[in-house]
Amino acid sequence: MRLELRHLHVVLAVAAAGSIRRAATSLKIAQPGLTAQLRRIERTFGGQLFVRAPNGVALTDLGEHVVLRAQEVVDKFDDLCATARKIAERSQPASIQLGGVTGALIPQLVSAVREVLPEQDITTQMERTGEAVMDHVRTEKLDLAVMAEFARTPPQLPFGVHRRPLLTEPVFVALPAGHRLADRSELDLTDLSGEWWTMPEESVGGPRSTFQLTCEAAGFTPRFAHFGADLATALELVRSENTVAGVHPAIHDVAGIVVKPLAGNPLHRRLVLVWPETSALADVIDRVHSGFITGYLHRTHRSALYSRWWNAGGEEFALGSE
């Protein structure tokens, strides 16, 4: 007879029960059938595994050896099944969880993942701050997120979180259409030293702190008028309150607003992908990374202003080494 895993379960059941009768009950088979099966198992092992005892059966020396090793085999097999299931679940999760700070980058990320896994369900979680996004990645609530980093205030990467740079994106400046600088094709940051600024929500290491450090390095301290504005609110405040604001370079035309690049790109952010070690996307990050950049470039050239910047040397700045 060839021994199989089920035979080891029989031996372990008899040893645990200390009685063939009780083992037969737990295994839900007839006692005579169990006895006959046990005898065949013993012949295969070459000797008795059990002897009669006052209250049932007891292990022989051979039986103790077999039970010890059989338990190891069964435990390893159970571990094999459990780890295989985890890998299978990772390979084919019920839903891919993507995230990032609210804005245009998340749809770009969804498109990149969709291209790699067209049949996979995808859900998104959008937050107002990078800290909230990173916390979701750290606690494995997100499989992948797109985030922005700022050179003067780089974030600390939590243990177990991986990072892949995408590109460096310039920050342009939105001005009221009637602003004294509205006719310029490009501005110096110092041209805006006397302006009042509308800033997005404060985030540790985010735009406001980075912006202030950059302005101070240029020789002036910026003046802030409004904080915590989303893009739509920021643009309305630029138009109605005669403030200025940093904006995404591919922003669409907005009535009453003009957008200008800054000479030398002093304000910029590094776009990166971050994911936990256990991410369901860990094995396809290279493909998602490539797809994101390809999609981003298509989007870039849909904006006349951003496309001009890109073709005038911006590509080297954006895609150069970190």
UniProtKB/TrEMBL annotation:
Question: What is the name attached to this protein's record?
Answer: DNA-binding transcriptional LysR family regulator
| UniProt keyword annotation of DNA-binding present | yes
* UniProt keyword Transcription present: yes
Which protein family is named in the record?
A: Belongs to the LysR transcriptional regulatory family.
GO MF annotation, one: DNA-binding transcription factor activity
Superkingdom is: Bacteria
Residues forming the HTH lysR-type domain are 3-60
